[in-house]
Amino acid sequence: MAPCANQLQLPTAPLHTLRRQAGRGVIPLRRRPRSASVTAMASGGPSPVVLGCGGISVDYLATVASFPNPDDKIRSLDLKVQGGGNTGNALTAAARLGLRPRIISKVANDAQGRNILSELQADGIDTSYILIAEDGNSPFTYIIVDQQTKTRTCIHTPGSPPLVPEELTKANLSSALDGADIVYFDVRLHDTALLVAEEASQRKIPILIDAERKREGLDELLNFASYVVCSAKFPQAWTGASSLPVALVSMLSRLPKIKFVIVTLGEKGCLMLERSMTDASEAGEIDAEALLESLQKKVDQSSTIPKCIASKSNLRISADGVGSISGRLLLGTAEVIPPGELIDTTGAGDAFIGSVLYGLCTGMPPERMLPFAAQVAGCGCRGLGARSSLPHRTDPRLAGY
User: How many Cα atoms occupy the beta-carbon half-sphere of 250 within 13 Å?
Assistant: First the structure.
């Protein structure tokens, strides 16, 4: 579907280009071809910078035939130790796709912390803004991967001592944000995240929030958000709405700065509600639930590759008891992964977010960005752990994007 002139699409040029042009008082009138930024990156030009603030850890992943019953003693079928944490995983995905990530977080000066840093550095992530505590412990997570049900269960131990805002100096904060094209938060380290968000907002740097679940500090951070990616249960839990499409309308109504919200739905794909630039109040209203049903009927059930089905642009989308917003609804499908290739879903949502960060920075339209992010997430599910199978930008499976 061709973009409508009145529809608020993803940036009409990569975010780093837009911010430079906006600083000169120039706003591009046409979409810069996606290939322009990708070509520049491939030819050695500067890649967009993403700053992430949040969780990093070590993951201890044990694959078992089936999840144990209480007081059982079982043996693992496979074991892997690798870096984890929402922010660490999402930025690793972004780095392998070609962005230049920086990260604000904290580890201890222990073996786990040193491994976390070396693994991030190996993927080209700037770790110079990670604080290192001489005492305490670095964060770590036990992950039980159930081979029978293809599920994973996580037991997380936070790092100690935690990062506090006073440890992030004004000089380091300013340096971390200098040249950043977008800032990402997983809502961990919420006090420090709020400090970073306030400064990023003053600099007019776009902010993406990962709303996995209700967390302390989330509501304050959402007020700064330009984009939100959330888990399947979050929108209704946060809004109290009767259904997912109603909850999305409620979120955009309550958070007027947000340009879009994406809900990841696992094997069912994703759903995106995008706000229009212009008011469609004169257009006839269409019910959000009915609109979603109409998109679902267009899904090709025989297709195994990710697709995107988009509604018409600049609709007036309504929800009972909530109101209405001007925008459009997009339904993305997931890759259908053969059972023999599906190894572990750990970090699939993080891989999706890393891909969305890439899509925003390189000017991908939503119709391309959603299948791309689903494809990257699908690649990640073919290996044990969140990072083992994350693809690089040159991966043949991404060539079509």
Answer: 18
